[in-house]
Amino acid sequence: MFLITKRKRITPPADVVADCPRRIILPVNDGRLFAVNADNGKLCETFANKGILNLQTNMPVTTPGMYEPTSTADHHR
């Protein structure tokens, strides 16, 4: 359990901001999560593994088609 006593704004490193000042986080049904630059549609190279995060890494069951994200795409800046 975490207790938040004071909210802080986290400022990302300059290279992350330069790579993707506005990003769309997009889950897909094969267990991957993409970070896409909202301005040009390219993957955000500074996110995870060159813009793609495999959410099934170290999961006990990785059968194709058995992973279904429940969140929609989200826009961050």
Automatic annotation (TrEMBL):
EC category: oxidoreductase
Organism the protein comes from: Klebsiella pneumoniae
TM region positions: none
Organism superkingdom: Bacteria
MF term (GO), any: quinoprotein glucose dehydrogenase activity
Protein name stated in the entry: Glucose dehydrogenase
UniProt domain Pyrrolo-quinoline quinone repeat: residue ranges: 18-73
Chain positions covered by the region annotation Disordered: 58-77
Record keywords, A-Z: Oxidoreductase
InterPro entries: PQQ_rpt_dom (IPR002372), Quinoprotein_ADH-like_sf (IPR011047)
EC number per UniProt: 1.1.5.2
A Pfam family recorded for this sequence: PQQ
